[in-house]
User: Which sequence fits this backbone?
């Protein structure tokens, strides 16, 4: 994780904003879906889901590599549970993340220890989890459910 991470967003037009991550990283266009925006870029909820899924994926990889294990392909899918709060405002009520390893569980040593600890290394999901429930599943390359 970047220490003291910072981004700058600048309105371009309508609900489109240019997201600037700094000199070394390409900028990204953010936009609300219709009817507010044009859907020409990622919406804020997509960016939140991407941040949670990316951090969990990196933490799982980090934990596996501590034991010199290779997950093969690693895929994450994050889905928001959207609902209305007591004021009838739309809110993300929960996030479901499915992590899929490219290898069979039988081919990964110390997997039980990895699965027990990897979420603790994820700064983003552990921070978001303080306000939004995050449910995590891990599947191996054969489709077997290993966690969640």
Assistant:
């Amino acid at each position: 994780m970047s220490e003291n991470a910072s981004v700058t967003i600048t309105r371009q037009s309508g609900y489109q904003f240019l997201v600037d991550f700094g000199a070394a990283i390409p900028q990204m266009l953010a936009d609300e879906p219709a009817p507010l925006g044009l859907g020409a870029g990622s919406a804020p909820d997509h960016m939140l889901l991407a941040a949670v899924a990316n951090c969990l994926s990196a933490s799982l990889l980090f934990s596996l590599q501590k034991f010199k294990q290779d997950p093969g392909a690693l895929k994450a899918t994050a889905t928001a549970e959207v609902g209305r709060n007591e004021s009838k405002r739309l809110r993300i009520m929960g996030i479901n993340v499915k992590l899929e390893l490219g290898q069979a569980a039988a081919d990964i040593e110390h997997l039980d220890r990895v699965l027990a600890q990897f979420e603790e290394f994820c700064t983003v999901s552990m921070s978001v989890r303080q306000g939004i429930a995050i449910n995590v599943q891990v599947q191996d390359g054969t489709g077997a459910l290993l966690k969640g």
Q: What stands out?
A: The radius of gyration is 18 Å. The chain has two domains: 1-42, 44-147. The first helix runs from residue 44 to 66.
